[in-house]
Design a protein that fits this description.
The protein is mainly α and 174 residues long. 43% of the residues lie in helices and 10% in strands. The chain has eight helices and four strands, in the order αβααβαβαβααα. A two-stranded parallel ribbon has the order 1-2. The longest helix has 15 residues.
Length: 174
């Protein structure tokens, strides 16, 4: 199943990364053979094999904390969590386009049926943005309004030695 899901990502294009992060040495050691076996019958093997060869990785880590940290560092478009406690990762990871929890929730389902959409951040952009949603098409504006009493209190902080008055003037504030 892991090999199938990794190759499912690799077949998206010749530069598509497919990375296993695992604390299981047995899985890490068995994966290359299973990938080679599946590439012999995969209709998209030409594309998937190039991506796997050039951008595929197997990262063996010591703990699930390290696995979560590594996944956050990579900030991939899709992150599929196949563990006994997949929801543990939900509360600890922040950098992903879409997170798929458990073996019943594979990326293909998200691509075709259960996902909000398939326009997700690539090339580690998940470090600072999420997937496309209606909010991306809405203009966000903000406003500020102080009461006279609040303005006096805020002014004391603003014009203290801790505040740079020049910055306030250069922004057109008086």
């Amino acid at each position: 199943m892991v090999a199938t899901d990794l190759l499912g990502q690799a077949e998206h294009g010749p530069t598509s990364p497919a990375v296993l992060i695992s604390i299981s040495r047995a899985l890490a050691q068995a994966l290359p053979g299973e990938i080679e076996r599946q590439l012999k019958v995969l209709p998209t093997a030409d594309l998937a094999s190039k991506a796997w060869r050039d951008y595929g990785e197997i990262l063996l880590v010591n703990s699930r904390e390290e696995a979560a940290a590594e996944a956050d560092r990579l900030a991939f478009e899709h992150v599929e969590v196949l563990t006994r406690e997949p929801r543990w990762f939900l509360g600890r990871m922040r950098n992903y386009g879409a997170l798929f929890l458990g073996p019943e929730t594979n990326v293909s389902y998200g691509d075709k049926v259960i996902g909000t959409n398939h326009t997700l951040p690539t090339k580690r952009a998940a470090r600072y943005t999420g997937g496309l949603w209606v909010g991306k098409f809405m203009k966000t504006v903000t406003y500020q309004e102080c009461t006279p009493q609040a303005s006096v209190t805020i002014g004391e902080y603003c014009y203290s030695p801790m505040c740079d008055r020049t910055l306030l003037v250069s922004q057109g504030t008086s």
